[in-house]
Amino acid sequence: MERPFVVIYLVGVCIAGLIRVIQSRKYQRSEKPQVSVLELWLMLLWLIASQILPMVYGFRAIVSFANYPLPHFLSILGIGVLVLSLWLLRQSHVDLGQNWSPIAEIQADQVLVTQGVYRYVRHPMYSAHLLWGLAQGLLIANWLVGWSGLIAFALVYWVRVPPEEAMMQERFGQDYLEYKQDVGAVLPFVG
């Protein structure tokens, strides 16, 4: 275990938590939040894989049998990817403003946001979490702990995004279809 890189990752966890706490204070809860049991379980799995497991690993070398050597330049690249993911997460919240919700829902006064980072990808928060999962694997050189966040994120993404896209299409109609045609889902120009 390369402790400095694990510590850097854990600092990133704290910064991401702070970003979410600040944004959550602005959130106005809808009357009937609708979250499936599967989505709740996958979100819990993602929390464990991307935050709790790395935290435990940082303080106790659990599953050290799965450690692997990682060239320092890849870990340093991981720092850059982590910083980029934190910036993108924060900027996504800033650009989305009052339209953000921790669950898939359409708010009464919601508008279709297509400026800022939303000009390049439809789901920049998911892009940030994709980068986060990659950074986790590059900073925590352990096959189980390092890559668990990316795997859990992929499961959450495949469960959450289709209903979110359907809701956006239903609410914004042709405007969303045109936006979807012009802008990639989590990577610019892809899907």
Overview of this structure, please?
- This protein is an all-alpha fold.
- It has one domain (3-22, 39-182): Four Helix Bundle (Hemerythrin (Met), subunit A) (Up-down Bundle).
- Helices cover 66% and strands 0% of the residues.
- It has helices at 3-26, 37-59, 72-96, 124-139, 145-182.
- The longest helix is centred in the C-terminal third of the chain and has 38 residues, at 145-182.
- The model has no long low-confidence stretch (mean pLDDT 84).
User: What's the count of strands?
Assistant: 0
Query: In what range is the share of β-strand residues?
Result: under 5%
Question: In CATH's first tier, which class applies?
Answer: Mainly Alpha
* Estimated structural class: mainly alpha
Measured as a percent range, the helix fraction is: 55-70%
Q: Helix and strand succession?
A: HHHHH
The shape is: elongated
The rounded Rg comes to: 17 Å
Tally of structural domains: 1
Q: Span between N and C termini?
A: 37 Å
Number of alpha- plus pi-helical segments: 5
* Uncertain residue ranges: none
CATH topology: Four Helix Bundle (Hemerythrin (Met), subunit A)
Mean pLDDT: 84
CATH architecture: Up-down Bundle
Largest sheet: none
Q: Brief description of this entry?
A:
This protein is an all-alpha fold and 191 residues long. It has helices at 3-26, 37-59, 72-96, 124-139, 145-182.
List keywords for this structure.
191 residues, mainly alpha, Four Helix Bundle (Hemerythrin (Met), subunit A), 66% helix
